[in-house]
Design brief:
By secondary structure, this protein is α/β, with parallel strands linked by helices. Helices cover 25% and strands 25% of the residues. It has one domain.
């Protein structure tokens, strides 16, 4: 069985980020997303985890 890594993505809530996330999920990768407003994000998958935060706040990047 092939082992997939978890991929962290900043800015995944934007137009381009959504395409990247869909592609990663379709290939079976686990994805962690740092989003300002995860409640507005519309892609749901058991392989994704949403973290509310802002990338400029260092404490929120070390999760």
């Amino acid at each position: 069985m092939k082992k997939n890594n978890t991929i962290a993505l900043l800015g995944g809530g934007g137009r381009t980020g959504k395409y990247i996330i869909e592609e990663l999920l379709s290939k079976g990768h686990q994805v962690k997303l740092l989003l300002r407003s995860p409640e507005k994000f519309q892609i749901e998958s058991p392989l994704s985890k949403f973290i509310k935060g802002m990338p400029l706040m260092r404490r929120q990047l070390v999760y």
